[in-house]
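Methods — Computational structure assignment.
A single polypeptide chain was analysed. Its primary sequence is given first, followed by the predicted tertiary structure written as structure tokens.
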Amino acid sequence: MKITKLSSTWRSTLAAVIMLVVSLAANSPAQATGNQKVAGEWKTVEDVFGFPGANLPGGVIRFNMPRKDLHVTLAGTEIKPGLALGAWAAFHHVGANDAMVMGDLVLTEDEVAPVVKALLDGGVEVTAIHNHLIGESPKLIYLHMGGHGDPVKMAQTIKHAVGLTKSPLPTGGSAKETADIGFDVAAVEKIMGRQGNVSGGVLHFNAPRAEKLTEEGMDTPPSMGAGTAINFQPTGNGRAAIAGDFALTGKEVGPVMKVLHDNGVQTVALHSHALDDVPRLFYMHFWANDDALKLARVLRGALDQTNSEK
């Protein structure tokens, strides 16, 4: 009986010691300070924009600023902001006090000059200015930006630049939407081989690159915008308008373009979005309006020509 009592007491004491050690480790000043610093830094960035960002894989926070003020048509189809009017800025930590930013602003022609000046004056690089569509009305210009440094200062610069446009900034988080948008979403997802996400009346797919990505030598999570984006907007009777871009290495450009061209999907732009990315990526933008399942098969065939995550 005495031995049993001693063993039980020892086990209880040992358990208490383990719990104390775990508790101290979990709540150590160093770890608490680190967590508070990260959370506090993103909160100050959110305070600049005035609305919450979306937390994405790889420690990325993204602020979506769709151009809901614009009424854009292409070949008789009114384009929803989620299809091809999605301005955004994404931030990722690259050091104790530094972050990298990448983003894309959707501009009318008269907005380009003042926005470029505001970004450059604030120390944010302009990395590309070009089209993503052909034949849209009014004509749109897409400006890509990047940089690294104090995330709050970069956010202030971007917020100021966006303020020079007529872009309405979001006021809060968006509610989850139903997947019933006019065509068989489950069938499209099965063909694409991945799950999509419905927002703004548009079905979105993202396919990250499989290899490690860097920009100016800094690790770049695919959720910073360095992956393939495919969007389906319903246009009635099981049809959909598609837009987006494939993120491609040079050797992948030809095979992907051939798949699209041979199956009635128009390539509308081919260009870079960044200045010093490794591997060097080119972005191929596309457009079509046809049966949603047919288009999904074409896009899946093109995606299979790339080194994308499965």
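Note: The CA atoms of residues 271 and 282 lie 5 Å apart.
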